[in-house]
């Protein structure tokens, strides 16, 4: 936007035309960043598409939950990490992405994995556009300082608890959701950009901080009251 304005000024264009061109360029750039944010966010966390048939247990769980509870079926992606974690991305329900770590796929039991998948599907249904755009544009160094601060506030604790509870009630077995959260908190630390920590079920950066560490335990306490 600044570049367009400078070039227009040098060319002798009227101030109104300069402002209009700059505004149009800014809107066009914002639209491009918005539309590309899911792919950018997936790249930022190192997510790769999960090939059909690679994890039949996961695919069966996805199909069962989506059919029973009318979820849209997200595309599946995997991040190579021993950590137990999962993320949800997407601008709308029709083009959402579910990301799981290899640790989650290999170490969770069936009930815990179902709880995690259900939770991320509930998050997608609530809406993940803001979190996705924030994680996507954070790859641009010019906006990274701002988005890093926003990312720290994106993981609203109350909303996170509500999604936990919704998923636990959906699967009719709250202990599985509690166990999944506890195992995620106790597993290896997930290496992921700070600006993308908010998209994960358990934010690895909050977990590493003194004030953030109890949050997972608080979420588990909320589940114990169901």
Can you characterise this structure?
The protein is α+β, with helices and mostly antiparallel strands and 226 residues long. The protein has helices at residues 2-10, 15-44, 56-69, 102-107, 110-126, 129-137, 144-154, 157-171, 174-186, 204-207, 214-224; strands spanning 48-49, 75-79, 86-89, 97-101. A four-stranded mixed sheet has the order 1-2-4-3, sandwiched between helices. The longest helix is centred in the N-terminal third of the chain and has 30 residues, at 15-44. Residues 1-11 and 208-214 have low confidence and may be disordered.
Helix/strand layout:
Blueprint: H1 2-10, H2 15-44, E1 48-49, H3 56-69, E2 75-79, E3 86-89, E4 97-101, H4 102-107, H5 110-126, H6 129-137, H7 144-154, H8 157-171, H9 174-186, H10 204-207, H11 214-224
Parallel strand pairs: 2-4
Antiparallel strand pairs: 1-2, 3-4
